[in-house]
Design goal:
Layout (H helix, E strand, L loop, with lengths): L2 H12 L7 E5 L6 E8 L4 H5 L4 H17 L3 E8 L1
Parallel strand pairs: 2-3
Antiparallel strand pairs: 1-2
Helix pairs in contact: 1-3
Amino acid sequence: MNLVELTKEIVMALAKDKESVSVKEFESDDDNTILIEVMVAEEDIGRIIGKEGKISNAIRTLVQASSYLKDNKRVKINIDKY
């Protein structure tokens, strides 16, 4: 499972409006960095970010750990709403 699929699986498990979840990988200026953009419905943004950003940090930690096992690249995840 690649990093985008892993991120999407985690976010889909947390979101109520699963139809509006969009996870895409974008090019980064640094070859050693992977940039992942997560878009969710406005009513799900709090559920994905969590209180004080704890859930979003947990998602970043899981995806970063997976990256270290495969590519050893730094992962940046941006979470936004529609």
